[in-house]
Amino acid sequence: MFETIANEDDRGQVGIGTLIVFIAMVLVAAIAAGVLINTAGSLQSQASDTGTETQEAVANQIEVVHAVGETHDGEELSETDDGIEQLSMTIMRSAGADVIDLESMTVQYTSAETDQTLTHEDSDDVEDGDEFDPSELEEEQFTTVGIDDSEDNSLTNSEDRVQLLINVDEVDDGLGEGDSATLQLVDQSGAQFTYGVSVPATFGNNHVVEV
Question: Which 3 state secondary structure label does DSSP give 182?
Fold first, then answer.
């Protein structure tokens, strides 16, 4: 019923063959374990990065404290052909947010007439001669200017206030009475804040109106 191995050399060869198969199985198992460990580590790292990015996107919020529309030269809004030529928004970072780099921020400007992505332009480059002049901003640009002791290009502390300026005359040919627009501010972490601009139905004799 069972085959009898009479030759001692044959018995040794069978034992060596079994040992080789066993070693091969151990090596395969070790390699598989290494692959699983590396995969688990990679997935853990990706999950950690995703969690951090999600937390930043939720926490890093920009808030608009105040927003007004005005003309470039200070004349009455009702006397201009384009109405509001410049948007001026006072912004701050929300409580618990990290430092917000305004140079990396984008502003998505959307109205009934246009949809434009604006990128940051340093205020030192927005000049007419040697003087700061927001009317020099082009249609795909916005700039930021620190208020009091705040920095121009970042929101470092919750007390910081920065003025964000958009040349609406270039972006949207101005905003007239009753017009509206939406501004979506997206910072370096991907966090978004949306602000709706609503122009009063009449300008009256005002030089500046809240929007």
Answer: strand
User: What is the β-pairing status of strands 141-146 and 154-155?
Assistant: unpaired
Q: In whole angstroms, what separates CA 139 from the centre of its chain?
A: 20
List CB contacts of 151: < 8 A, sequence separation 6 or more.
Answer: 160, 162
Rounded to whole angstroms, the Cα distance separating 146 from 136 reads: 18
Give the pLDDT score at 10: 53
> Residue 176, SS3?
coil
Length of the chain: 211
Give the global pTM: 0.71
3 state SS of 162: strand
Q: What tokens does 102 get?
A: 């305004």
Collapsing DSSP to helix, strand or coil, 205 comes out as coil
Residue 150's alpha-carbon distances to 94, 141, 154, 178, 192, in angstroms, are 15, 21, 8, 34, 22
Q: What stretches of the chain show up as alpha helix (H) in DSSP?
A: 8-59, 168-172
What residues of the chain score a pLDDT lower than 50?
2, 51-54, 56-57
Helix (H, G, I), strand (E, B) or coil at 183: strand
Instruction: Check residue 29 and give its pLDDT.
Output: 86
